[in-house]
Write a structure and sequence with these properties.
alpha/beta; Rossmann fold; Arc Repressor Mutant, subunit A; 2 domains; five-stranded parallel beta sheet; 5 strands; transcription regulation; transcription cis-regulatory region binding; HTH_Fis; DNA-binding
Length: 185
């Protein structure tokens, strides 16, 4: 009899095309004891899920190419026991209903941190919300703002005028914010 490899850390597949956001969330989940695999697209996520089906998945709704709803459908087809949260900055009631209909446990709007996701996961499973650790540092408001600006700028393919319009800022104000270094946590 060959001893099996036993891991008590829950496996998590984190799928988001925003590298900064994905890395920050991945680090936060690892700090809480999760075994994290990250992917930047639907195709990367499916390759990872086929190699080792995750217990949990956090899936961004809007990504280049195939979207998060399609990934929810395919993850459920691979392993119906995978618990899936859909995460997006472009939410609507229609997409929330569709995500849940396809098998997602819950739907979380961006910006969200790991604690928001854990609460949504517990709520989707009908469990009491987990206690938030006191030693965990939430990102500063300046850091959250900087990450949001970077996400919108990426969505606008680097077009500062369009990003400023979407953010409700004057173009020069956005340029000044972009000249500063990213704030620390």
């Amino acid at each position: 009899m060959v001893p099996s490899k036993v891991s008590h850390a829950p496996s998590l597949l984190l799928v988001d095309d925003d590298v900064v956001f994905r890395e920050r969330l991945g680090r936060a989940f690892r700090e809480r004891g999760y075994e994290v695999v990250m992917a930047g697209s639907v195709d990367e996520a499916l390759v990872a899920a086929r190699q080792d089906s995750p217990e949990l998945a956090v899936v961004d709704l809007r990504m280049p190419g195939r979207g998060g709803l399609e990934l929810v459908r395919e993850l459920r087809a691979l392993d119906a026991s995978t618990r899936i949260l859909v995460l997006t900055g472009y939410g609507s009631i229609a997409t929330a209903v569709e995500a849940v209909r396809l098998g997602a446990l819950n739907y979380v709007p961006k910006p969200a941190d790991v604690d928001d996701l854990l609460v949504a996961l517990a709520r989707g499973m009908g469990e009491p919300s987990p206690a938030v650790g006191e030693d965990v540092q939430a990102p500063s408001l300046a850091r959250a703002e900087w990450e949001h600006i970077q996400r919108v700028l990426a969505d606008c393919a680097g077009n500062i005028s369009e990003a400023a319009r979407r953010l409700g800022l004057h173009r020069r104000s956005l340029q000044r914010k972009l000249q500063k270094y990213p704030p620390q946590q």
